[in-house]
Design goal:
Layout lengths: L2 H14 L3 H27 L5 H25 L5 H9 L8 H22 L1 H8 L26 H23 L11 H16 L9 H16 L2 H8 L4 H59 L11
Helix pairs in contact: 2-3, 2-5, 3-8, 4-5, 4-11, 5-9, 7-8, 7-11, 9-11
Length: about 325
């Protein structure tokens, strides 16, 4: 093996035995998720789908996350969401040494995916808004292709609560799918369960502010739109009171989701398992005690003639 081959071999070993491998999987999984999801939002917006767009976007994002989780799941766990990564790490379901690598990879994947969607739909976006980049509620707004924006009549407090509850539900679905201690869901079903769960959550909580539920899906593309012509209003929207909601809200909701699952499911099953084990042990002890008593009685009857029953005459 020459020097160059030895160098690449050591580089490959470092890559395999470091968090870089998992980070690359998270980057690629998040890129695929946002690329498909934002592409679907481009179709909904530029195609004037209107009310039908709610169904299309829910199904599209659900299928997209199922594909992304299936793609990265066997390598990194398929988090593709910073809120999921931090919540699982908090509950010791993911090593903390991976967290920073995962977050960087996820946000970068979201940013680059938005750039790809912009390039693919550049002509269509120009046709739609005549080159004037607009934000909601403008009728020719295209910013919602890449990031989420709330309805005019919905308060920031309601949007924050919306994100907390929606992401908590998402983490409950994820914990249910990956729980191998009690439910033992086959691994090849897990992406489908997460995708269907996300689909239901978007249908239930998508009206107020588009159900971002994923900081990398919202912040990465928002930074891209800031640089690509939509301007600083992407962050100053509603007097700078909106952009942090799709980032902080999902993190709070994700932590609550894993706590709820741990309290209502993990502890319940753990107590049930403990009680069942104790009952089995008690039953074994009772059976063992009865068996020992029977042996003792037999031995006494045999050894003490006075306890034997006489059959026949004197």
């Amino acid at each position: 093996m020459n020097t160059l081959e030895r160098f690449f071999f050591k580089l490959l070993l470092f890559f395999v035995h470091s968090p870089a491998k998992e980070a690359c999987a998270e980057f690629f999984g998040t890129l695929v998720l946002v690329l498909l999801g934002d592409g679907i939002m481009a179709t909904v917006t530029l195609g004037h789908l209107g009310a039908h767009g709610v169904i299309v976007s829910a199904i599209g994002w659900g299928v997209s996350v199922a594909i992304a989780v299936a793609l990265a799941g066997t390598i990194s766990g398929g988090h593709v969401n910073p809120a999921v990564t931090i919540a699982l790490a908090t509950m010791r379901k993911c090593p903390w040494k991976y967290v920073v690598h995962y977050l960087v990879a996820q946000y970068l994947g979201g940013f680059i995916a938005a750039a790809f969607v912009y390039i693919v739909y550049y002509d269509a976006i120009n046709e739609f808004d005549n080159g004037q980049r607009q934000l909601p509620p403008h009728p020719n707004s295209t910013a919602q292709i890449f990031s989420t924006y709330p309805q005019d009549f919905v308060s920031i407090g309601s949007c924050f609560l919306d994100q907390v509850i929606g992401t908590a539900m998402l983490l409950i679905v994820i914990c249910t799918a990956i729980d191998q201690r009690y439910k033992k869901v086959p691994s090849h079903y897990q992406p489908t369960i997460v995708g269907l769960g996300l689909m239901a959550i978007i249908l239930a909580f998508g009206y107020n502010c588009g159900a971002p539920l994923n900081p990398a899906r919202d912040l990465g593309p928002r930074i891209f739109t800031l640089l690509a012509g939509w301007g600083t209003e992407t962050f100053s929207f509603r007097n700078h009171m909106w952009f942090w909601v799709p980032v902080l809200g999902p993190h709070v909701g994700a932590l609550l989701g894993v706590l709820f699952y741990s309290f209502f499911i993990d502890l319940t099953f753990a107590n049930y398992t403990m009680m069942s084990s104790e009952a089995e042990e008690d039953e074994k002890l009772v059976q063992s005690s009865e068996h020992e008593d029977q042996n003792i009685s037999t031995e006494v009857c045999v050894e003490d003639p006075s306890l034997q029953i006489n059959i026949g005459a004197n």
